[in-house]
Each structure stands twice: as C-alpha cells, then as structure tokens.
C-alpha cells in the first residue's frame, strides 16, 4: 500500500507581504504568482510486516519512531495526530531544490503535499480550497509559523493566479493570458541561487512586527498596486510587456528590501547588480528575503552571459506548472 504526491514550488511576482492577516485584516491584500516545475515528492507506504519501528521518516535526516510524539518533524507529527491516523508508516520526501530556505514556498508545498497524502490514506477527497485552507491552518494556527497565506494556494492550485484577501475571504482569479505570452514568460524565467539558505519564519518576523505597527503601510500598498498592473500587463500582452514586467519586478525588489533589514545585504545586492548587468529585464529575491533564489526575467539568448557574471552560483531555468498538488500514485486500499 503506497501513496505518492507531487506538489509544485512557487514564485511570487507581486504583492508579497500583503498576504499576511496582520495586513489584510485592515486593508485589501493581493498577490500574483505562479507554481513552477520544481517539486516536492512525498511517498508513504503502510508498514505491515514486523519492524522495530512504527514510523520511519526519510528527509534531510532519518527518523525511526515507535510513537507519534517521538517524531521530530513538526508537520508530520501534528498532521498525523490531528487526523487520528494510526497506520504504521514509512515516509520518504524528495525535493527538486534545497528544501530549506529556498524562498520558493517549499515549507508550504510540503504541508500541502503531505496533507493530500494523508487525505488519500483516509479515503478522503478534499476540494482544492479545502486543502489550501487546511494547510494554512496547520502552519499558522497549529504550528504558529510566521507565514503568509499565498504559498499554500499556489502549491494547491498550480498555474498563474491572482489571489485576493480581505478578512476571512479568499478570491482566486486565474489569469486570462494568450498562449504566446505564457510561452514567452516561461522561456524568459530563470532562478539564480544566492548560495545562502534562510528560514522564512525567522527572516519575516521583523516585517510582521512592522506590519502590526502600521509603519510600512505605504510600501505594502505600493506592492498591492503592482498586482493589478501586472495582471493588466500580462492579459493585454502588448509588444513591450516583457521589459516592462522586468522593470516592475526590480521596482518591487527595491520596495521589498526597504521593509526590513533582514531582507537584503551587500552580498545579495552584489548578486542583483550582476544580474542586471547581464542585460536582464529585471529581478527580485523570492520569498521573505535574506537568501534563496533571485527570480530573473531575461532574454534566453543572454542566459550564458548571466551564468558567466554570477558564476559559480547556479542558474536554473523554470516553467509554469499548471496542475498543482496531485496524487501521482495511489494504492492505498
């Protein structure tokens, strides 16, 4: 008996920071971003033969446990407890990119994928919005993580979407893009790894405090306005949409880096300047900041120049995932 899930990571284009209840409980929040073709795979099989353990977990470390409370991985432990799943399990996690500190929403992608797996083991079929909201509940309420609410939605729904937030309401709007615009966007996106990993819940703590104190309302409002501008740009598909989108991306990065001292530093600024120096249309650091990946928009013919300028840092092409979190194999009964 085995269940395997595949859940995409994401890149956020605009609006990050307005997807925290600390903001959208007072003002409208919105983000636009996309799931990408880099994934977290989770496989779980029921342990039916005699073993010295009831739970075996294989991720960045290896755990053998007899009781649920012995499990160190917080998401696995608390989700299994909350669902009352008493099956003995052997669980393996594989990530296409560094699973911690990537800025690509890996923590939320894992939570979504693990929940989808547990639902399957229980014989349940949640809707996509139910799955996303359950992941938000696990991270924000059960584990008290300093996370927003966009990553869980991107991981669940896939594609490129605008998500709007106000109080307890979430509205999902898929972008109405022409196929040639979608194709050009996919061909022009690369990720540049900074060589630095950071934990988002720590990096964003000072930003959340500034949000609560209302000291960055103006900056967050500017990021919110960029969401609508991006939607119009991508749906209209004018001839100069790509360089204009790149300029907006860099502008959002300059706003983002002013939100907290933890967002950037001189090394990250140097990487950004090297990216722009390679004639990229624009770039921004993904996620909460402090490390991870720069999302870069660039002419595909200039990627070699980019690689030379940022060497030895890794440069990774990406495209848009349209499926969202899915079960790729299910032999649970």
UniProtKB/TrEMBL annotation:
Q: Name one GO biological process term.
A: galactose metabolic process
Listed under GO cellular component are: cytosol
**Known EC number:** 2.7.1.168
Name any one GO molecular function.
galactokinase activity
- Which portions of this protein are annotated as coiled-coil regions? none
Task: List, for all copies, the residue spans of the domain called GHMP kinase N-terminal.
Answer: 75-159
- Top-level taxon in the UniProt lineage: Bacteria
Cite the Gene3D superfamilies for this sequence.
3.30.230.120
Q: According to its UniProt record, what is one Pfam family this protein matches? A: GHMP_kinases_C
Keyword check for Ligase, yes or no. no
Q: Does the keyword Kinase apply?
A: yes
Domain named GHMP kinase C-terminal is located at 244-310
List UniProt keywords, sorted A-Z. Answer: ATP-binding, Kinase, Nucleotide-binding, Transferase
Put simply, this protein is called D-glycero-alpha-D-manno-heptose 7-phosphate kinase
Provide the species name.
Methylobacterium symbioticum
